[in-house]
C-alpha cells in the first residue's frame, strides 16, 4: 500500500506526488509534512503517522509489511481494561468513602456484572458514544 501526505488544513490524505490538496486546493507544505503509512495484509489494516521524513515512512512501511508476512507484527497499542477490573478497584474505595457502597455492590452484581463485566472499557465508551447497541 502507498504512503500518503496528510493535508494540514482539511486532514485528507494525498499522493506523495501532489503539490496541492485535491480536496481544499491549498498547497501542501514543503516542510513539516506528516506522512501516513497504510499497509493491508490478509484483511488486516495497519496505519502509522510519520512526521517529516518520506524515507523514514517508506522504511516503516517495509518493516510493517515484513513483520505482517512473517507473523511477527505486534500491535503496540495498550490493551483496554475491562469493567470487572475497574469495579475491582472501585469497590475498596467505595467501602472506605461511601455509606451506600452496599447498594452499589448489589446493583453491580445483579444488574451490570453479567452484561457489562467482561466488556472492554474503551469499546463500551465508544459504543455508547456512537449510539450502537451493547449486544
Name the descriptors.
about 140 residues; alpha+beta; four-stranded antiparallel beta sheet; 4 helices; 4 strands
- Kindly give the count of domains: 2
- Shape assignment: elongated
**Mean pLDDT reading:** 82
Q: Which percent band covers the strand fraction?
A: 15-25%
- The N- to C-terminal Cα distance equals 34 Å
The profile of the biggest β sheet is:
4 strands, antiparallel
The total of beta strands comes to 4
**What is the N-to-C order of secondary-structure elements (H for helix, E for strand)?**
EEEEHHHH
* Helix percentage: 40-55%
What does this structure look like?
This protein is α+β, with helices and mostly antiparallel strands and 135 residues long. The chain folds into two domains: 3-70, no CATH class; 83-130, no CATH class. Helices cover 43% and strands 17% of the residues. It contains four helices and four strands. It has a four-stranded antiparallel beta sheet with strand order 2-1-3-4, covered by helices on one side. A hairpin with a 6-residue loop joins strand 1 and strand 2 (13-15). Helix 2 packs antiparallel against helix 3 (101-116). The longest helix has 17 residues, at 54-70. The model has no long low-confidence stretch (mean pLDDT 82).
Question: What is the element layout, followed by pairings?
Answer:
Blueprint: E1 3-6, E2 13-15, E3 34-41, E4 44-51, H1 54-70, H2 83-97, H3 101-116, H4 121-130
Antiparallel strand pairs: 1-2, 1-3, 3-4
Helix pairs in contact: 2-3
